[in-house]
Amino acid sequence: MMLSSFVRVQLIIFSIVTVISLVVMGAYYMRIPSLVGIGRYEVTVQLPTSGGLYKTSNITYRGADVGTVLDVVPTQQGATATLSMNSSVKIPADVTAEVHSRSAIGEQYIDMVPTALDGPYLHDGSLIPAAQTTVPQDIAPMLDTANKNLAAIAPGKLSTLIDESYKAFNGTGPDLQRLLDSANLLVHDAHANVAPTTRLIDDMGPFLSAQAQSSDDIYTWARNLNSLTAQARERDESIRAILQKGPGAADEATKLFQQLKPTLPLLLGNLTSLGQVAATYNPSLEQTLVILPQLMSMLNTIGVPNDVHNGGAGGPVLSFNLGNLNAPENCTTGYLPASERRDASAIDAPPRTTDPMYCAIPQNAPLDVRGARNLPCMEHPGKRAPTVAICNSDEEYQPKGTNPWIGDPLPVVGNPLGDQVPGNGGPAQPAPGAGGGTQAAPASYGTAVTPGAPAPVATATYDAKTGRYQGHDGATYELSSVATSSSNEVRTWQTMLTGRSA
Questions:
Q1: Half-sphere exposure of residue 225, counting CA atoms within 13 Å on the CB side?
Q2: Torsion of CA 110, 113, 119, 122, to 10 degrees
Q3: Which one of 50, 153, 407, 444 has the lowest number of neighbouring Cβ atoms within 10 Å?
């Protein structure tokens, strides 16, 4: 069959159009190159859930389609989607794969949102972990919850709920807008701080559990608080009086502290030293407090009843039982000699001696065994000494004498006790018999006065404010330690501590 040249040209043109149409249809509509992997590469995306994603879902990058979803496979951790990407578009590897809904019918797609503008880029075999993916909130549980809430409303009450909601929220549009905006900011900040927010929610669990377990205690506390407020309401006048008088009491307390300001530091400073001493001698103080009740009981034995029927006056009688007076004899070693002892009538203040006075005989002597020489050293257990200086030194206690016997224990005139050497008991003398020898008297006594010739006694008027008194000779005397520099000067307890006038 012979074809004309015109027909052959038509057939050639038709064949060319057919081939072009098939190529265009296969390349752009049937996507044959993508099916065979030409110009494509695969990327795996790990998702916490499928998020409604399905096979053939589109993939967009900056609003343009760059691929499709080849497959979605569920896993134990969520789902894995295999993506077929267009190799002509370079997408940074640091990207977030976000699953979104394109329409209300649930058409899902993946939007690639880059967090970096430069490489490295996605390539064949790249993996986008679940930490770099987001999926939309499943709306099905929300719809189920809303359906349950609506079902819980009694029939015919839905209109009432809508009316009351309208009354509650009518005119509060701006306030609700601010509330939603603030909630949006809160959610945004919580999303930006996922780890601290998650930790806060996790930590709230034990706290809320503890509150649930202590609900009875909380109820009791609330009930007691209610009772307290009720009592406060009943005693409103008393509370008001306290509030009205409280500032005045506070002012008085402030004035008191101002008055104590110049003296309190001195007192506290002195108490510091006293506290240190008390801490050092704490065992001795404890022993004193232990034996004090027994000592008071012993002192009570001095008083004996007075038998009125046997001629008594009926008043109390004190019986000291002094039959053992001067037995054993007195200790004189370590004290002033009799020639330097002061008369009891002296009123001036003599200078203190350089050495402390105590019974300075050996520690194992049977005389005055509870004297100062046998005091225990609190800071040096096992050591005994009469003074703190000896306790704190490396030296041991050294006695000053042996307190030898001097005459009869009772003092009579003529005893050599008045001539003894200071610090020692004087020369030893044999003890006289019961009927012989003379007794010693202090040097200040002079010649013994015959009994029956008592010394004359005189009285005088004394002014305690000025310290003046009139002697038996008619002259006026003044005690300088009592007299004040000014008759108008007021002495208070503050001046006693500070030494300055108030």
A1: 6
A2: -10
A3: 153
Q: Say which amino acid occupies 468.
A: R
Q: Does residue 350 have a cis bond before it (omega within 30 degrees)?
A: no
Looking at residue 29, what DSSP letter applies? I
Q: Spell out where 374-416 has E strands.
A: none
Angle (CA) 408-414-420 rounded to 5° is 80
Bridge partners of 41, per DSSP, are: 85
pTM attached to this predicted model: 0.33
User: What is the C-alpha separation between 439 and 99, in angstroms, rounded?
Assistant: 125
Other beta carbons less than 10 A from residue 335's beta carbon: 19
Stretch (H or E) spanning 255: helix 236-260
DSSP state of 476: E
Convert the pLDDT of each residue in 9-22 to its tens digit: 888 898 998 988 88
Q: Are strands 462-463 and 468-470 parallel, antiparallel or unpaired?
A: antiparallel
Q: Are strands 95-101 and 108-114 parallel, antiparallel or unpaired?
A: antiparallel
Host H or E run for residue 477: strand 476-478
Q: How many Å apart are CA 58 and CA 352, to the nearest integer?
A: 112
**Strand 58-61 to 476-478 pairing:** unpaired
Q: Provide DSSP, 182-210.
A: HHHHHHHHHHHTHHHHHHHHHHHHHHHHH
| Tens digit of each residue's pLDDT (9 = 90 or more) over 79-104 | 999 998 888 888 898 899 999 887 76
Q: In this predicted model, what pLDDT tens digit does every residue of 281-310 receive, in sequence order?
A: 898 899 899 999 998 888 877 766 655 444
Give the Å distances, CA to CA, from 395 to 58, 200, 376, 388: 104, 70, 15, 12
